[in-house]
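Handoff note, outgoing to incoming analyst
You'll be picking up this chain. Sequence as last confirmed:
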Amino acid sequence: MQKSPETFWNWFVDNAEQLTMLNDISEAEGQQLLDQMQHQLDDYCEGLTFEVGEQTAQGRTLTFSAEGDFDLFRYVVELVDNAPDVDWWEFVPFKQPKGKSLKVTFDKYRFDTTKMAFIQLESEEEPDIIGLRVALPTLPADYRPRQDNPDDDDLLVGVYVTLEALLGEFDCTTLVGYLEVCPMPKEPFKEGFRPLDDLPEFVEWFKRSREK
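Most recent structure output, in case you need it:
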């Protein structure tokens, strides 16, 4: 039976001081505490995860994620909306953008956003979502994806994780509806590609254009 947000927050308030001082307790104690918090989160809504930010002069952040599952977004919002005021803590819904010039590791793949490019794939049937073709310098010129190749699936997931780091979880999940990868063209910008680090600005333009 799913528990209420208050049950999670009651546990958090009881353990907030220890969680604030994670750097000052043993690694084993800290991991046990984080495991307990994940258990409490699972009791509220299985599928949600969290990330504890580094300690700063302002305290720590606690970010909740639905791991890109749109059906669970409402539970993230409900949880944060019901958060109590806790000294030294800020509660954040969804993974936030991490800036530009990122280096992202996923499985055996390494992605450098400064060396990647994208082009929009437009669809008359779905004008309210963004389709993207992302060019990678690491792919051979004759690369063709294969549906039965797990490596191709992992590569696509890795690119998606990179996009999520650029855009944040909410925009990436709600706006990017189609994604494919390709080798980097010899002259990508002449073919209409843009640097991948320009993607956040493009997404903001896309959102404004939908509102008109």
